[in-house]
Design brief:
Strand order of the largest sheet: 1-2
Largest sheet: 2 strands, antiparallel
Strand content: 5-15%
CATH architecture of the largest domain: Orthogonal Bundle
Radius of gyration: 27 Å
Number of helices: 10
Number of domains: 3
Structural class: mainly alpha
């Protein structure tokens, strides 16, 4: 296919399937991809001559996660569109929903955002879209990410409080580093257990440690097993 496309661009002729004659064409080609074509050329899956034929004017569109300021505009646009589509009158979004949308990474970009809002409008029975109408992975994104998790932040939706790590003050004498680290470890483990419903294996996955490691840490910290 790449060879045929290259020939059509270069010679400005095409041949119909099953045909024997070439047909002259005059067309402007707009091509789009979500792949890194430079890498595809290196691994041999994309022809370099076709790339340079197509790559006359390049426009790189950043992913949605890098365009946070656009998210609210898109939310309102798709809300209006979906209200018309499903014949509903949802008026807007709860603040926690906007926060979740801005924190979420959007691997499916704008199309995923549109699908999520269509789902939310279809499921929501209130005037405003709530977190309950969103997929779980987006609900979880409502947690504050303004700083490293656990550093004085609190998830008001799920009521998981985290300790505030004090700034070191060496003028008042040695600090108790072991206690600070122990308190931090205890807070994270307790929160992970709470989030996982007490399932230690799931809590270990949330913390990025092994099941054996979390059992050892629970024993060391004196947390009930």
């Amino acid at each position: 296919m790449q060879v045929k496309l290259l020939r059509a661009i270069q010679e400005k002729v095409v041949r119909r399937v099953g045909g024997t004659k070439t047909i002259a064409v005059s067309a402007r080609i707009v091509a789009a991809t979500n792949r890194n074509l430079e890498e595809a050329i290196k691994d041999g899956s994309f022809r370099d001559d076709l790339y340079y034929r197509l790559n006359v004017i390049s426009i790189r569109t950043p992913p949605l996660r890098d365009r946070v300021s656009d998210i609210l505009l898109l939310m309102n646009f798709f809300l209006k569109k979906m209200n018309t589509k499903v014949r509903k009158t949802v008026k807007g979004f709860e603040p926690s929903v906007q926060k979740a949308f801005e924190n979420y990474r959007w691997p499916g970009n704008v199309r995923e955002l549109e699908n999520v809002i269509e789902r939310a409008v279809a499921l929501e029975s209130a005037d405003l879209i709530t977190l309950d109408a969103l997929p779980k992975q987006i609900q979880d994104a409502a947690i504050d990410r303004s700083g490293p998790p656990g550093f004085g932040s609190m998830d008001t939706t799920r009521h998981e409080e985290f300790i505030k790590v004090p700034s070191p003050n060496f003028y008042s004498g040695p600090i108790d580093l072991e206690k600070i680290l122990g308190d931090l470890e205890r807070t994270y483990i307790t929160a992970a257990l709470k989030h996982s419903g007490g399932v230690k294996k799931k809590a270990a996955e949330l913390l990025g440690v092994t099941f054996r490691s979390i059992r050892y840490r629970l024993e060391k910290l004196g947390i009930d097993d």
